[in-house]
Automatic annotation (TrEMBL):
It comes from Amphiprion ocellaris. GO terms for cellular component: voltage-gated potassium channel complex. The keyword Transmembrane applies. GO terms for biological process: action potential; protein homooligomerization. Keywords: Cell membrane, Ion channel, Ion transport, Membrane, Potassium, Potassium channel, Potassium transport, Transmembrane, Transmembrane helix, Transport, Voltage-gated channel. SMART domains: BTB (SM00225). It is found in: Cell membrane. Residues 103-210 form the BTB domain. This is BTB domain-containing protein. It is a multi-pass membrane protein. The chain crosses the membrane at residues 261-281, 293-316, 397-418, 458-478. Pfam families: BTB_2 (PF02214), Ion_trans (PF00520).
Length: 554
């Protein structure tokens, strides 16, 4: 049924301007309200005739109620014009015509519309939407990004996927976390909506906190990852030379020269350790010859290489304090420092007792050269993963040591009370009993201290059994952390290779691409690096599924 022009004029208070139906509360209001109402309706699609007739009838009833004094009190509750959009009823009356808060709010989050009742939002007044439902019209824009007061619609530029869980929280009172959501992003969303993470249901709480803690730990760059980027050279002297030299020393994937330098560094580390072992042999007694001069020469060559490498790194970086505090650089310093201390002590003249004692210290310092093996951590993903695992699992390791300490103290005191009065006892003191309990709980069992009585052997069995159980508890957690750290580092390395490949493609660096036409070969390498990253991610998903997705911290 179409609405005819006579019908519109017969309504009396209703006004038609340029084909637009204006209610009395708009025509009688200020000009800016008429303009806002007109702009709003011009932006809307054309209403069907049936809906226009419904609006006309409701407006006619509105005029009758306003003209009758007996029904003036009831006019405010029936003066709202109602339209239908997306199967949702909402008020289309301007703010100046509203005398009571509406029953529903239309919330537009990321382009998706959600309908929430005033009663539902009132049950959570501390949340953002709860405050929006009870606030005045003047403070609406403080709680939302935009608002259409004519349609009672409020806009939020947030994730609609995460808001579905917020909607479920309003309806059920339980906040759940989906498997597909990032925990850090989900936390940011619920904090925006004014919901505390303590509201998360118990069924999702354990998984949420576990994954959140692990991702936060992975996002924090540990001290042993010494990643000084190009920004460190901004404003420094000769920034281009420093940057190229730093890439040569720290980024093996940046060029062929850098890969060659990294291989030489690993070679000198292995040679220095083997050389240290050969020098420790007594050639005079075992072989009847003096130590070869070549061993001393190789030691000097290796130390000169390590010293030059550390010095160049120190000269390249701009932040010297940060460089000095870095764990890899401290390891490099400790690897070469014993050599120079030994050299200084051996060159001192005199035969005093202090020098003899210093000679013993020199022997110990020479053994510290084995720390050079830790230099391989710069080139080994496995050693980096081990360092990250230890740094992230310090709480679990601390709990493990606490359990072991309590068990050792209890079993040591008990076995000492049973065995100390025997004539042939090996438990001569409580520290000796501590040694026995330590070797028993760690399932080493040297056998130098052992119980002789039957009750003591039963106690030893309980000590060994408890040690196995205590050691087994944190192993699964540490193993999962190590796997996650290893895959994270592998993906980071693949991403670094992708970035270096893209830089070379953008620069048009054809000289290092290989003999087959430069640019095409670079693209082939880039494609292979992408396949490697996909393979690593596939391995990570396979390991997660095989071990149980709920158990892996990834």
């Amino acid at each position: 049924m179409n609405v005819s022009e006579p019908h519109l004029h017969a309504a009396g208070p209703t006004t038609v301007r340029s084909g637009l139906l204006l209610p009395p509360c708009v025509t009688d209001g200020p000009p800016y309200l008429q303009l806002s109402f007109k702009r709003h309706h011009e932006a809307q699609p054309a209403e069907p005739p049936e809906l226009l007739e419904l609006i006309f009838l409701l407006d006619s009833e509105h005029a009758k109620l306003h003209s009758s004094p007996s029904t003036m009190s009831h006019a405010s509750s029936s003066s709202s014009l109602v339209s239908l959009d997306s199967s949702v009823f909402f008020s289309d009356t301007p703010a100046s015509c509203v005398t009571e808060p509406l029953d529903f709010l239309l919330v537009n989050v990321g382009g998706r519309r959600f309908v929430l009742s005033q009663e539902l939002l009132a049950s959570h007044p501390e949340t953002r939407l709860g405050k929006l439902a009870s606030c005045s019209r003047d403070s609406v824009m403080e709680l939302c990004d935009d608002a259409d007061l004519l349609r009672n619609e409020f806009f939020f530029d947030r994730s609609s996927q995460a808001f579905q869980y917020v909607m479920n929280f309003y309806h059920t009172g339980h906040l759940h976390v989906g498997e597909e959501l990032c925990e850090i992003s989900f936390l940011q969303e619920i904090q925006y909506w004014g919901i505390d993470e303590l509201q998360i249901s118990t069924c999702c709480r354990e998984r949420y906190y576990r994954r959140k803690e692990h991702k936060e730990a992975l996002d924090l760059r540990p001290d042993f990852e010494d990643d000084d980027d190009d920004e460190d050279f901004v404003g420094a002297a000769c920034p281009a030379i420093r940057c190229r030299l730093w890439d040569l020393l720290e980024n093996p994937e940046s060029s062929r020269a850098a890969r060659t330098f990294g291989s030489l560094s690993m070679f000198f580390v292995v040679v220095s350790v083997v050389n240290m072992v050969l020098i420790s042999l007594d050639f005079g007694e075992e072989f009847g010859v003096s130590p070869p001069m070549l061993l001393e020469v190789m030691e000097y060559v290796c130390v000169v290489w390590f010293t030059a490498e550390l010095t160049l790194r120190f000269l390249c970086v701009r932040n010297k304090c940060r460089f000095s505090r870095s764990i890899p650089n401290v390891i490099d310093l400790m690897a070469i420092l014993p050599f120079y201390v030994t050299l200084a002590v051996e060159n001192l003249h005199g035969g005093s007792t202090e020098l003899e004692n210093m000679g013993r210290v020199v022997q110990v310092l020479r053994l510290l050269r084995s720390l050079r093996m830790l230099k391989l951590g710069r080139h080994s993903t496995g050693l980096k993963s081990l360092g990250m695992t230890i740094a992230q699992c310090y709480e679990e390791v601390g709990v493990l040591l606490l359990f072991l300490g309590v068990g050792i103290s209890i079993f040591a005191a008990a076995v000492f009370a049973l065995e100390y009065d025997l004539p042939t006892t090996t438990f001569t003191s409580v520290p000796a009993a501590w040694w026995w309990a330590t070797t028993s709980m760690t399932t080493v069992g040297y056998g130098d201290v052992r119980p002789d009585t039957a009750l003591g052997k039963v106690l030893a069995f309980l000590c060994i059994l408890s040690g196995i159980l205590i050691l087994a508890l944190p192993i699964a957690i540490i193993n999962d952390r190590f796997s996650a750290c290893y895959f994270t580092l592998k993906v980071k390395e693949a991403a670094v290779r992708h970035g270096e490949m893209l830089k070379r493609l953008n620069r048009g660096s054809l000289g290092e691409a290989g003999p087959v036409g430069g640019r095409a070969n670079l693209r082939d390498n880039y494609a292979r690096s992408i396949l490697e990253m996909l393979r690593l991610q596939g391995r990570e998903r396979a390991s997660t599924q095989s071990s149980g997705g709920e158990e892996l911290w990834w």
